[in-house]
Design brief:
Helices cover 27% and strands 23% of the residues. The protein has seven helices and ten strands. Helix 5 (50-61) packs parallel to helix 6.
Length: 190
């Protein structure tokens, strides 16, 4: 059965066509052939105010099981991508990262890999291991993430409790070109 995937990315990567390469890579034969449904909302997102955008993101995340974060040069710093990542974790989605700067842009050039956004976001794990408090790096120190409060998570082992752990501790990251995303995307989201 096809998975419903939510794609999170910086809009500049749509303009450069890199995000579209991943989002549309197997849609020629339709979603059944692709093995996933695209739940991205980027076409509408730029027209909304912050509250409306939050509602739209929350709505589009409904019925998804996987969130794929498409990592370009500035994805790690985008406030709405941070919200999409934490909201995905809160709702229990599997979350993966995919570097896309290795894909030729509309200028037919590649870029150096962008910073991993999972290195700039963290969860403080409760002492019972069942809750996570989201944190973000503000380029100087870890601060509370103001858009979401503490939420339930999959119970963590004792070694992770009462600690702040970067999301990179849990979440895998792939490179679209080096890890042959065209052929392996379906296995990454399974």
């Amino acid at each position: 059965m096809a998975k419903r995937v939510y794609f999170a990315f910086h809009y500049q990567d749509v303009i450069d066509f890199r995000a579209n390469v991943v989002r549309n890579h197997k849609l020629i034969g339709g979603v059944e052939k692709a093995g996933y449904f695209d739940a991205s909302i980027w076409e509408e997102a730029r027209k909304k105010n912050p509250l409306a955008l939050k509602r739209m993101i929350n709505s589009e995340l409904e019925n998804t099981t996987v969130t794929a974060v498409l990592i370009g040069s500035d994805t790690y710093a985008r406030p709405w991508v941070r919200y999409e990542i934490f909201k995905s974790i809160e709702r229990g989605n599997s979350v993966i990262g995919i570097h896309i700067n290795c894909i030729n842009g509309k200028d037919q050039k590649t870029k150096p890999l962008g910073p991993n956004p999972f290195e700039y976001l963290a969860l403080t794990i409760s002492n019972d291991g069942k809750k996570g408090k989201p944190l973000e790096w503000d380029n100087k120190k870890w601060i509370d993430y103001s858009e979401l409060g503490t939420f339930g998570i999959k119970e963590q082992p004792i070694a992770n409790r009462d600690k702040g752990l970067k999301l990179s501790h849990w979440l895998p990251v792939y490179d679209w070109v080096a890890n042959n995303g065209y052929e392996n995307f379906s296995s990454w989201i399974s």
